[in-house]
């Protein structure tokens, strides 16, 4: 059967090459299929991974590239077989827009670990069409990869769909969500500040571990952490040795793991959610001498992402964001590179994306 050439006009901002500079871009979305949800994008978070992808630092970039995988909007059209959504609903799309739906991971609500997962941008659909993300006016997505956005949750909280689920999932899966536990959070950026908020909401004691002593007041007074360690201070680190049940490590730069492993109690777990571009050195003896675990975690499946969004709505947890207009995006990316944001930029697509 001949493929339909029908499509929907869309508009966004795209990078054309490894400079990563974004500019206005006209393109096409597919027409709304029978299981698809079309929605008007209102807000889209700027994730640190957008920087890597825009500049081809992971060597897999497809240009032109429309980034954005923390996308919140309002449904404008639904396919004939859509069951979960109706026109006017608030919805969100995170890092995934497709998976095989038949492997063991998909069967267990772990679409995020499907080997055939399709990323929201810089990916390719099964028909060879590239995926374009949320720095754009509309999205068309299979309803399976769309979450309900609770009415009482601000739409600017879009970074929950990446930064939120990336820290919620490992706290849950590795059992670091029990009241009374002592949890460490390494790094106080977009991911780290969410890890602190979730860990506190679960009733744990939280220690922030950072190279920057200047973040101490922020961590304790504003985010509610119980204590703060300067990772470059050997005396502080030694004084806290063996005190933590688990650590969420959000740092994407090269850094030593031994000081962190030494902070763990017997059976402690160090969970990596940052993605350094080069391998880290892993000393084995400290693992053997405490039956300790170094593990990883990547975003979450659709069921867990919905669970996380419902959890934050119930507990009034939101990311700290700086909302900026679409035309500010290149400046925002430059500032993000310098860590000059608390803690996530969010693009106001609905009010500021225009073709003029």
Automatic annotation (TrEMBL):
CDD domains in the record: CAD1
Record keywords: Metal-binding, Oxidoreductase, Zinc
Gene3D superfamilies: Medium-chain alcohol dehydrogenases, catalytic domain (3.90.180.10), NAD(P)-binding Rossmann-like Domain (3.40.50.720)
Domain Enoyl reductase (ER): 20-347
GO biological process, one term: lignin biosynthetic process
Cofactor: Zn(2+)
GO MF annotation, one: oxidoreductase activity, acting on the CH-OH group of donors, NAD or NADP as acceptor
Pfam families from the UniProt entry: ADH_N, ADH_zinc_N
Similarity-based family: Belongs to the zinc-containing alcohol dehydrogenase family.
Name the UniProt record assigns to this protein: Enoyl reductase (ER) domain-containing protein
Organism: Solanum bulbocastanum (Wild potato)
